[in-house]
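Fold in tokens:
===
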Amino acid sequence: MRAWIAFVPLICCLTVSAAEGAKPSAQLTLELADGVHTWTTAQLLALPQAQNIQIPEDVSYKRAMTYRAIPMAVLLNGVNPEEHLQAVATDGFAAEMPAGPLLANEKNGSRAWLAIEQPNKPWPSLGKDQNTAGPFYLVWTHPKAGNISPEQWPYAMVKVRLLASVAERFPVMRPDPALGANDPVNQGFAIFQKSCMACHRLNGAGDSQLGPDLNQPHSPTEYFAGDYLRTYIRDPQSLRQWPQAKMPAIPASVLSDGDLDLVIGYLKHMAQRRDVAK
């Protein structure tokens, strides 16, 4: 779960800015049903829908932020709400997201925006690596109205692509097909896609390059005794400490105890289905 820590290294097309100290202009790629679209920073900022937005509680910066941004619905014109999208960042983070919330435009409802880092006005550093959340960052106004999780705030984003569902693309991740759609294991699979898959693979399947596989060669449900897996998810540094650790603490405000139980139930189930990947 990368949550508020960034996305397969990709080549981001750059053009050098003439302004001294300015960041290079970047390129965002959209792979949609009608083809591949590329937008430079300058082109995005020139769109008439570009505006300043206020984010009172930014997930990555942990404070109020102001961004020059465009509604994601503008860039995703022609995408259907029932379709599936993936947002990819420069560090291997790949966020799986249903299209519906990204297209929503209800008053006082959650609304997705593409925040654009202006070359002459770079955003603050996110930490010791001195990188910012740019060049492009998916942010939300009124996120609580749509139950938007931190994994749905991908930063350092360089690509958005229309894909088949996770179950279709990666059948080795699917629970036993004999289970009903409302079975707790399938509920856990749905939460896994939203909260874990941006960083982790399972049974060798998935697009993220950031975190370890959660079923090969072993499931964490097999080597964490008792409640230590829950403890690790809630506060990784309480069990393992190292300077380059990237997994953040996942509090109950982000993943409820009930949802955490469902995810662990899914992982326990998949520990018995390792052979499906062979």
Summary: Strands lie at 27-32, 35-40, 51-55, 65-71, 84-89, 94-98, 111-116, 136-141, 157-163. Residues 6 and 155 are 6 Å apart (CA to CA).
